[in-house]
Specification:
Layout lengths: L2 H33 L15 H6 L7 H6 L2
Length: about 70
């Protein structure tokens, strides 16, 4: 019997690949927002997303207030 570790390996690889794909889509969307001069604007309220948040994750679309509201 191959055991649980072997049976999980393909599932884990698929999960990693799915996360990479989601991240790629998010970063491509951020590049599009840069081109449209909308980068850094919150999708929830239109206010500026703090530079510190964007430094951590440039793909963010919500400011800290809207993210806290669960928008």
């Amino acid at each position: 019997s191959p055991g649980p570790a072997r049976s999980q390996s393909p599932a884990m690889a698929a999960a990693v690949e799915a996360r990479r794909g989601q991240r790629r889509v998010a970063l491509l969307a951020a590049l599009r927002r840069i081109g449209e001069q909308e980068f850094g604007c919150c999708a929830g309220c239109g206010e500026f997303i703090g530079a510190g948040r964007l430094d951590i994750d440039p793909a963010l679309v919500l400011c800290i207030v809207c993210a806290g509201r669960g928008q």
